Amino acid sequence: MPVVNSRxxxxxxxxxxxxxAPISGTAQSTLSCLPPLKPAPVTDSGVRAEYAxxxxxxYAAYFDDAQAFFRCIxxxxxxVTEEVNQAILDYGGVHEALPD
Length: 100
Hints:
Number of strands: 0
Distance between the termini: 66 Å
Largest sheet: none
Low-confidence stretches: 3-26
Number of helices: 3
Order of helices and strands: HHH
């Protein structure tokens, strides 16, 4: 693993903030909705028995993350719908002002 110079870290943080700032100021985008990674199936019965609690936790976390993903997609859809409706109103105003 590479060693990060402590002087570089504040610069890295500023770069990350600069990248994230435009995203946080705009409507929710499906690009910011990342689907969860499906847990790898455990086919070995011995491993399943030995790590049953961990496997259950991993699947529970996956299902929770999937629900969060669906909520994110729903918010993004609602935001885009609102933007499209506003664009329709804007276009109506522009269209009425245009000569025939």
